[in-house]
């Protein structure tokens, strides 16, 4: 039985794509490693080995995302330039691209930052499956399914000198490259703030904007906490909260927050007491930033 199947596998592989499946016997059984998933900032990329599909009697025209065989945008592209050859799928992480091929997008709440509020992640998942065009009541082909998912944490730490992600592991995705923080000189948010070497005068109002770009419109930006520290490293220095949740410092004014794909607030400059012997008191601004589904943002929005 094994010898016969192996012989068939070899003849099919070598006749269809000679030179590409030199080690065709390695694809006798399907395996989890047959699919590779890349969770990108703007899109998801899938690669699936073609040899196992041919072994079970399928080809690239019989494979689609979530059974959407009638939609060209839900079909993959065969790449014959690599050895072994693969089937490639890619779709952008925007509402139209996610839904057109019936991929699932779900929000998951949990709590690395539960001190401030419940934290969400978003999970984008689906299946690549095969179709037997000759099947009627029965089929002699084994159906093939490749499940995939990407989990994107929706809370990040952003500051005005660099952006840092907290606890992103494995093959999970990240939206951190879509986030930026910019300081402006007035409420119009048009002219960036210039900080001279001599520093700003005390009680100068600074206008802060945290913005998400190239992100699905499903999510808004919500600032959970913004604070300053005497060191670029938040965990190892004196800190002062500009706001935490709904608790604002008296000199902090909250603007847009949780309503759009940007959040804004302002505060007045001050000096850290421990810098009493310095001409200039230097501090660093950090914001714990959440990307939340727009309807969920409303329940968390600060008032």
TrEMBL record:
Pfam families listed in its UniProt record: Zona_pellucida, ZP-N
Gene3D superfamilies to which the protein is assigned, alphabetical: Zona pellucida, ZP-C domain
Signal peptide: 1-21
Keyword Ubl conjugation appears in the UniProt entry: no
Top-rank taxon, per record: Eukaryota
Keywords per UniProt: Disulfide bond, Signal
Keyword Signal belongs to the record: yes
Domain ZP: 38-303
Cited PANTHER family: ENDOGLIN/TGF-BETA RECEPTOR TYPE III, ZONA PELLUCIDA-LIKE DOMAIN-CONTAINING PROTEIN 1-RELATED
Stated name of the protein: Si:ch73-261i21.5
Lineage: Eukaryota, Metazoa, Chordata, Craniata, Vertebrata
């Amino acid at each position: 039985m094994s010898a016969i199947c192996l012989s068939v596998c070899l003849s099919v592989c070598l006749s269809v794509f000679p030179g590409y499946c030199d080690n065709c016997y390695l694809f006798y059984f399907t395996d989890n490693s047959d699919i590779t998933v890349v969770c990108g900032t703007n899109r998801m990329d899938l690669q699936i080995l073609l040899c196992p599909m041919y072994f079970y009697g399928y080809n690239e025209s019989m494979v689609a995302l979530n059974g959407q065989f009638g939609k060209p945008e839900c079909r993959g592209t065969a790449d014959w330039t690599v050895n072994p050859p693969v089937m490639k799928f890619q779709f952008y992480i925007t509402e139209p691209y996610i839904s057109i091929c019936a991929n699932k997008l779900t929000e998951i709440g949990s709590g690395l930052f539960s001190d401030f509020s419940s934290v969400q992640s978003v999970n984008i998942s689906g299946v690549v499956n095969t179709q037997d065009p000759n099947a009627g009541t029965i089929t002699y082909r084994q159906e093939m399914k490749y499940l995939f998912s990407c989990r994107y944490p929706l809370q990040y730490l952003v500051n005005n000198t660099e952006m840092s992600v907290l606890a992103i592991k494995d093959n999970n995705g990240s939206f951190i490259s879509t986030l930026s923080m910019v300081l402006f000189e007035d409420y119009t948010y048009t002219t960036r703030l210039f900080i001279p070497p001599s520093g700003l005068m005390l009680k100068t109002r600074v206008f802060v904007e945290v913005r998400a770009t190239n992100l699905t419109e499903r999510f808004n930006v919500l600032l959970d906490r913004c604070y300053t520290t005497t060191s670029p490293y938040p965990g190892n220095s004196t800190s002062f909260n500009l706001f935490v949740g709904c608790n604002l410092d008296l000199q902090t004014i909250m603007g847009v927050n949780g309503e759009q794909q940007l959040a804004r607030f302002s505060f007045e400059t001050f000096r850290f007491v421990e810098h009493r012997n310095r001409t200039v008191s230097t501090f660093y601004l950090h914001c714990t930033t959440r990307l939340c589904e727009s309807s969920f943002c409303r329940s968390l929005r600060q008032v």
